[in-house]
Structure formats: C-alpha cells, structure tokens
From TrEMBL:
The name this protein goes by in its record: Two-component system, response regulator YesN
UniProt keywords, alphabetically: DNA-binding, Phosphoprotein, Transcription, Transcription regulation
Domain HTH araC/xylS-type, chain residue ranges per copy: 409-507
GO molecular function, one term: sequence-specific DNA binding
Amino acid sequence: MIKILIVDDEQVERDGLQTILEKHFSNIVIQQAKNGRIALEIAEEYKPDLVFMDIQMPGMTGLEVIKNMQSDNPRIKFILVTAFAQFDYAKEAMQLGVVNYLVKPSRVKEIVESVETILSQISEEQRVVEANKQQENTLQKAMSLFETDVVTQLLFDHVHEVHLAELMELLDIQATDEKFVISLIVPKGFETYYSAVKEKVNQTGSAWIGALYGRQLPIIVFRKKEQSFRTQAILLARDILTLAKKDGDIGWFIGIGNVYNSLGQIRQSYQESLIATRDTTTPGKFRFYADLQAITPNIDEQKMKENEELYFERIRNGEWEKIHQEISFIIDRLEQEGMILEQVKQRVMELFWMASRVLSEMGVESDVPLYSYQSTDFRQLRSETRHLLERMRKSYEEHYAELEADTIQQIKQYIIDHAHSDISLDMIGREVGLSPIYISRIFKEQLGINYIDFLTDCRIERAKKLMRDPAKSLKEITFEVGYHDPNYFSKVFKKICNVSPKEYRKKLFS
C-alpha cells in the first residue's frame, strides 16, 4: 500500500482531496494533518510515501516542513498545493526535490494524472529497493558461507590470496598483522546456538568464524591495537559464554592459542587452542595455551610444537604406523631420561587426547576411553598404547570405509553442477557424507589444487562461455556464474586470466 499524507490548514480542502484520491486509487492509505507541527509528528511514525503540502499555513510554512521531513526520509515525494498560479517558491521547491505542484482549486483530472505519475515512480523505486535488499541478503549469506570455507582452508590447507583480500574488504574487517585462534568446545545439540555465536563474533568486527567440526568451533581473531591480547580474548570468550548460561555451562569450554604474525602460522595457534581445552573442568570455562604447565619438565618447547604440528598432520592423514613409532620413541626417550612412569603416562595420554580432538574435527567418533592408563610398568604402557592406537585406527578406517573410488569425481561433479550457486565445503560434505576438512584434504591430494581454486576455475570457464553472447552484460554474467559483486568478479577474473573481463571480451569479439 502507498501511504499518503495530506497537509492543509483547511478541513474542506483536506477532505475534498482525500475523497478524490480514494475514488480513483485503491492501493493507498491516507492520513491528514492541519498544520506543519502535526504533520511532522505523524510522518515520524507513519512514514508516508507521498505528501500533499500546502504552502501557506500558520506556524511553519510548507517548505519548512518539507526540509524537516526530508532530513528523516529523503525518499518522500512532495506535491505542493498553492492558491497562486505564479509563486515565488518555485526555485526553492525544485532544490528540495518537489515533483509537482497544484493550483487551488485543482481539477480532478490534474490531481489524478499527477498522482498516477508519482505512484508509478514510487512503485518502481520500491521494487528496486526490494531487489537490492534481496541481493544484499543473498550476498550476506554467500559471504557467511565463504567465511567458513576460508577459515577451513587457512587452518587445514591454504587459501587463494585474492579471495582472502576480497573477503577482508567485503566483511569490513580491519585485519591486523597479529592474529590468534580460539576453539569453542560445545555440547551436543549446539546447532541451535550457532547463529547466536556467529552474531556475537561478527559484532566484534575483527574475527572470522569457521564451521562446526564435531563438537568444536574454530574462530580466527584479529588483534585490536587498543586492547591487550589477553583483554581482547577474555572479553570475547566471556561474551560467547553468556550463551552457555541457558545450559548451565555444561559442555562449553574455550581454548585460546598464542598470537602470531603470519597467516602461515595460524594453524599453530589453532592447534594450541585445541590443546588448551584438554581439561574442561576449569571453573572459568576458558584457558590460554600459554598458561598450561609443561607436562614434562626440561623439554624443548619449540621442538615440542613442531612435533605436535607433525602429529596433527599424521592423524589427519591416517598414518597410524608412523604415529605408533613416534609415541613409542617418546616413551623410550622419557624412560631413558629417568622420568617416572606416572609422568610418562600423563604425556602419552595427552597425545591420545589430542588425537581424539583431531578425529572429532574430521567427524570421526572414536570410542577410545580418555582416562588414566592402567599399566604398572613401561612394558604394559607400550602394550596398552598399541591397543588404544589400534582402536583409533579402526574408528578412522570404519568412518571412511564407504569412501568409494569415485567419490572425488562425485565432489568435482557437484561443484561443476552447482558452481553458479552459493556452495560451501559444509554443503558438499552433507551431499557426500564426509567431513569438510577431509574433503579439503583429499581434494588437494588427488587433484593438486585447492577446493576454492577449483570452484573459481569452474566459474571463470562458465563466464568465458557466457561472454560469447553479446546480449549479456558483464553484470548479468557476474550473477549467473555465482558471484554477487561485479568488482570482485573482475578482480578474480583478472587474477586467473591476466586480463580484465572487458579486455577479454574485447579480444573475443575482435
């Protein structure tokens, strides 16, 4: 419905105009005001689309009222109503964007024709606004999917630099050199809270939230210069944990990794954040990796971090024999150094705990019990370690037993068929029944390229075909191939093809 406001100090003028409008137009609602002050009060809540404004009224003039209304809503259309055919307000009225004026008394035909023209303009503007709103909503949805994919790629693979730079711009995130990761451990049924957590994280304007992997949710946080690292991390952790109050905090915990300067090191911060969640009984419900006490004294921490990173990769790759050899080597070394059995058992148990976290993020549910070892000597410790690793290996292999030889082809075909729409690793994972992280890894291993790069190639190849049709504009092609921003499409196209879309098309036609 189009909202109309009639402003005139004469009742008979207002009623007469309303009668004419209601007789000739069905899709309108009308309110009246007898002076400028009342008109402003009504307009604030009513938000009219079209205002008939008398010029000469007691108190405020019509032009003064128009200025005030436009400051709140510049889209309002105005028709001035005057008793004189020649008036001195024409120039100022034009500057205010008044679309027409009527001379009292006006003929019905003039009123109807003026309103028909303006209502047509209003309807078209509303259609454009609605279309833009839908496009913005679609873009936000696409960016949300893209954000989770980029987090996955950064933590488990790598991401195309053009996507990363453009994502920073589109999400309006003030990136800094320093960044860290927090891992949120959540209870089962957390899916209902995901949107709320995402909203809280996005409100900070300085973080990217990943997809939910098992019971853990990774978040990449960019350091704020005005706050210390610990202050920023604690405030964000506490803000997220306010959502856990409804569950009595059961099952919620946050681990916080160290700060690093490069994206290449962000995986180390992620692994540290996971290790920081090894004991979820801490009253504060969050812990910094830097606050963890060393399990084994006098150990080279840098060497330990390197070994942990390699250990994470071994688990993701399913290299169980190598994992067994490395844990056995650790047991042998610690025994030779004279460490007591209980300390060695604690260190080995931590490695199993880390393995269970990595398997969980891949969607593998391991039934290995995470309690203290029952062994009473080093021989039994080695035997029990072998037994527990075998159970983990079995869970891993059973999870991917249904992985057929053509699964990668299924994934490729799904991407090719849906490249024009908003797809993500999560969506593909649901389609083929695999973890997004696992898909990312096997895609890179078997095809030698990143999933996002393959998706980009599909879209660019389709764009090249569409460019052969001179009837299609570059903007239309942008949307048809799955992008929501022509400028972004142009950057990606130039990155891949070394020429801009316009230059490519020009060469194509010539």
